[in-house]
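Researcher: Here's a chain I'd like modeled. Treat it as a single chain, no partners, no ligands.
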Amino acid sequence: MIATGCFIIGIMTEILVGYIPHVFYQSLTFELCASFTTFSSIVLEIYLMLQIDFYIKSISYVLSLVLIGLMAIWFGKYLIYIISQL
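Model: Modeled as a single isolated chain. Structure tokens:
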């Protein structure tokens, strides 16, 4: 679900940037996507992995979440860019 939220943030950022002030579009995108990317549930999953000594798995989980999230934001922004060029 984190990739979905990041993808939507990328789309909304690309659409809203330049039309409304930075503070408003930033809070709007984060508020609307909060249900998709719940930070506390991710931290709980990592905590539970660390409790059972899955250190490498928890580190790879964090790194993959960050990488997938960044890729999803980029793809959402790129998709809107391509659509706007049509």
